[in-house]
């Protein structure tokens, strides 16, 4: 196997960290970048892109906060141009399943002149243990909108295993891989599964999107985040087409995708859901 120099943008996040671990174990040279790394990489500052891309062969691109936000197109255009100039061979872009706003960025990557694979992910299981919804679980009250939505939650371990494979396997060039879990679950169902796995009282409270957005504003979150969550709840979870389960994880990895029960059991065993919430 050829040893590759692989850049992981967002390499300290939910999927990036796991991709970095996988590819390091396979013997590749990894450069993880984010705002606090050396070299530092900041999506808001294109002057930081060049140092990150220098001497790299391939890159995993995690845009933050989301490809749907204004500003993402310019950033992805600049990054892919610089990647081509720097001599990169291939990129894998993490995108969101059902996010029509993200498709413009997918097109930019597809037309960049680089080899590429697009990985479209459903909502992550790890939002409840490493992301925005952890505090709700710790507080024992998960108040979220869209109670009727059936979401094919996907595990970050599966996304990372798929990304690690398609990033170094050129037979996936030009393909779009849709990664979901093996079943659709409502928020109420996943809350019940987490409660049982952690032996803790956790309640699901259905609220409206406006109530959720008001809560975000009261918590002092910027307007751009409030808009983004409104978009994700309304556009992504509100569209029944986005609730389909995909078989791509099994097709790429030759094993089934992880179900929510397994994620909940493994996560509960770490004790993270039985800690006290830190305000
Ligand atoms: N979470 C989901 O359910 C979900 C579902 C589908 C798709 N996605 C996509 O996954 C991506 C990541 O979302 P996430 O919320 O799960 O985050 P994440 O990957 O867990 O963490 C974000 C990463 O980006 C870095 N980062 C933050 N701000 C940055 C900036 N200005 N410049 C450079 N790096 C920055 C962070 O490191 P530093 O803070 O150290 O800079 C961290 O490594 C988004 O594009 C999202 O659309 C997420």
Question: If you had to describe this structure to a student in words, what would you say it looks like?
Answer:
The chain is α/β, with parallel strands linked by helices. The chain has a domain at 5-123 and 154-180 and 242-257: Rossmann fold, CATH 3.40.50. Helices cover 40% and strands 14% of the residues. It has helices spanning 14-25, 49-53, 72-85, 103-110, 134-139, 156-168, 187-198, 209-218, 223-237, 248-253, 260-269; strands at residues 5-9, 29-33, 58-61, 90-96, 115-121, 141-144, 176-179, 203-206. The strands form 2 sheets. A 6-stranded parallel beta sheet has the order 2-1-3-4-5-7, sandwiched between helices. It has a two-stranded parallel ribbon with strand order 6-8. Strand 1, helix 1 (14-25) and strand 2 (29-33) form a beta-alpha-beta unit. It is globular and about 50 Å long. The model has no long low-confidence stretch (mean pLDDT 96). Bound molecules: NADP nicotinamide-adenine-dinucleotide phosphate. NADP nicotinamide-adenine-dinucleotide phosphate (NAP) binds at residues 10, 12-16, 34-36, 41-44, 62-64, 66-67, 94, 96, 121, 123-124, 127, 131. InterPro entries: Ergot_Alk_Oxidoreductase (IPR051604), NAD(P)-bd_dom_sf (IPR036291), NmrA-like (IPR008030).
Shape: globular
Strand runs, count:
8
Poorly predicted runs of 5 or more residues: none
Sheet with most strands: strand arrangement: 2-1-3-4-5-7
- Provide the structure class: alpha/beta
Name of the level-1 CATH class of one domain: Alpha Beta
Find the CATH topology of one domain.
Answer: Rossmann fold
Total of helices: 11
Tell me about the largest β-sheet: 6 strands, parallel
CATH-assigned homologous superfamily of one domain: NAD(P)-binding Rossmann-like Domain
Note the run of SSEs as H and E. EHEHEHEHEHEHEHEHHHH
> How helical, in percent, are the residues?
25-40%
Mean pLDDT: 96
Give the termini separation. Answer: 48 Å
Strand content: 5-15%
The small molecules bound here are: NADP nicotinamide-adenine-dinucleotide phosphate
User: Any idea what the CATH architecture of one domain is?
Assistant: 3-Layer(aba) Sandwich
Q: Taking Cα atoms only, what radius of gyration do you get, to the nearest Å?
A: 19 Å
